[in-house]
Amino acid sequence: MKSVFIISLLLVHSLTAQKIQIKKDKVLLDNKEIALIQNPYRDHYEYYSLSNEKIFEVHLKGVDLANEEFIYYLDLKSAEGKITQIPYEVLVTSLKPDRIITHQLAVKYQLFDSRGIDREKIEAFFDVPRESLADKYALKKSNSFVDAEGKQQRLQNIKDTYNPRLAQDGEILFNNGNYPAKVAGYIKAYDCDQFSYNPCLEVWDLDNIKVAAVFPGNHGTRSYLVKTYDGNQFTLDVNRTFTSSDYIFVTELVSHLILEGYVLEHQAFYKHLQQQNTKLERQ
Question: Nearest to residue 134, comparing CAs of 78, 68, 61, 70?
Answer without folding.
Answer: 61
